[in-house]
Each structure stands twice: as C-alpha cells, then as structure tokens.
Write the structure tokens for this entry.
Amino acid sequence: MGIKNFIKSQFIEVIEWTDSSMDTIVYRFPVVNKEIKMGAMLTVRESQVAIFVNQGQLADVYTPGLYELSTNNMPIMCKINAWKYGFNSPFKAEVYFVNTKQFLDQKWGTQSPVPVMDSHFGQIEIRARGTYSFRVSEPTALMREVFGTKDILRTDEITAQLRSYIIQHMKDTVAESKMSFFDLQGNLIEFSDLVKGNIAEKLTPLGLEMINLVIEDFSMPDELMQAYREGSKYNLVGGYDRYVQNEKLKALNTAAANEGGGMAGLGATIGAGAIFGNMMGQNANSNNSTVEQNVLCPHCRAGNNINAKFCSSCGKTIGVENTTCVGCKAEIPKDSRFCSKCGASQITEKNCSKCGTKLPADSKFCNSCGTQIKSPHY
C-alpha cells in the first residue's frame, strides 16, 4: 500500500448504517482513530436519524436523506470548532444512528397480584398481561437521558423500565376505577387507553412514545375462578357463598372418614350436619322468597306476579271476587252460601224440583205446580 492510499484509508468517506437486527435503538458508527473527510457522503435511511457529537456536545442532527458533508450543512459543528466558511480539512466527531421505527409486540405482565375490591367476591387479587409498542419520538432527548456513552442501545435495556411504568399505572387505574373483575374484563379497550394516556407524561422526557398498549387479559386465582363456576351451577344469588359452604361440608366429611370413627369423627360429622342444615335453611328461605313474589291463577294455575290483577295466561281475574251480604251488607266472597259475619244465608232464589220454576228463597210450595219445596241441606 502506498503512502497516498494509507493516508486515504485513515479518512472516513462513507457514513451509513444498515440494521439487520430487530432490537437496536441506537448504534454508534465506528470512527475510532479515524477522521471524517470533509465532503464524505452521509446516508440516513427512512426510520433513522443521524446525530453528530463533537467535544462531548450534541451537534448536528440529520433526518432521512443523502448528504455531502460540508460547512454548509454542519452549522453546529462549525460553531463548536470555529470553522470558517470553506473549511476543508478532515475532522473528528462521533456519529450515532437512532432507530425511529416502531418496536412492536413487546410483552408485559404483573409479577405480583394486584389487590381489587370486587362486588362479587370482596377483596381479591388479580393479574394482568398484554403487549405494547413504542418508538423514539425525540432522538436528542433519548441521547441525553437514556443512552449515555454506550456503543449500542437495545430494547431489552429499556423495556424493563417501560413494563414498570405500565404495571404501576395499571395498578393505580384499577384502584381508582373501583370496577369489579368482570367489569374490567368487559372494558379492556377503554382501560388500555386510560393506562396508555397516564404513561405518556413519563415517557416524553425520555424521548420515547408509547404507540399502542393492549391489556389482553385480567385473571383471578384458579381456585377463585373455579369457585365462581361452581357457584354459578347453583343458579343462586350468592352462589359463591353456597359453594364455599359445600366445600366445607366435603372437607368435614373427608376429615370424618379419615379419623376412623370415634369422637373426632363424630364431631366432624356433627359440624358437617350443622353446615348442611344452614345450607338447607338458606335454600328454604330462598324458595319462600320466590313463592312470596308469585301467585297462582285460580282458574288455570299459571304463575303470576303478586301484584297482578289478571292472569297473563288466561286473562281471567286473579283475585277473589267479593259481594255484599244480603243481611248485614258485609263484604264476603262472591260464592259464599252464608255470611261469615252474621250467618245469614246468601241464597236469594231456588228452583222447583219438579217443573224448574224459579222461586223466592223462602218459598215452601211451587206457585206453578204446587209441589212442596224442600230446604237444601249443606
């Protein structure tokens, strides 16, 4: 190699970066022991930003495009080094490429359960998981606040902090919402947007932006979910409580069997019987409550609301029709034969057994055929 070629090899004439990885955020272009030739070609591709650093200071920033470096397009470098117009000597500088693309499908999840006051279960602990995507929104802020003096910055070096922000704000948002577990499950999109909005103020000073945040699922402990499913089988309000009692009954019966008889086994059996009695009592109360809320139609026996006046099945009146006693004028059921107040007969007419003529109730002989009218026996 001739002296001319050796000297030429010490100057950098082409500056570019092609990223073959999926996780590099910042890359330092290798310029160790070399100078950049004035007039060198700088290529900045889409989703990249190039930043020059000179004498420890952030200098010129280049967005996507092709540049021939000169004093015309390096104003900050010129100011730092006091270059005059037309300066044409090689110079030293550090060159960093910042990746501004979206980093997709980043995973997050709660390492420890989050306490929630649930309207169905009371105090429970839930977990959450999901994905998010982010990008560099302000490269110079990222260089100042996050990158430091490294040669390269990868996603795994900052995602731990991002996950921490997500989980912190997710916990706060859950607590503030006071929503039940099933309400949270039913509003995942809205809840995701709330958490994402709360995180923005944390990321902006770091030069980062969260593009998307997805809460894929909230989950409760397996045993609690199983309890809910079992409680649902009873089809009762408070089914979970019923399930708990049922599980206690099973446990006591098992304990009694394992004791091998004796007073311990008897005590367990008695305890089981007491719990079973409570369960039966609750069943009875539940059934009575159901009956009190309904009334049967006296005509077709269909069930109706207790306040209904007409049957929803046959259309007939549900309540008992009343009439007035012929004697004391008290209100009595329409089909009564005697008054429950004064004892007076409510029969106002009767028919002749021979000719069928209608006669006053106190008639002794038929005025049509002369047949003697006998008093009815009840």
About this structure: DSSP finds nine helices and 18 strands in the chain. Residues 262-292 form the longest helix (31 residues).
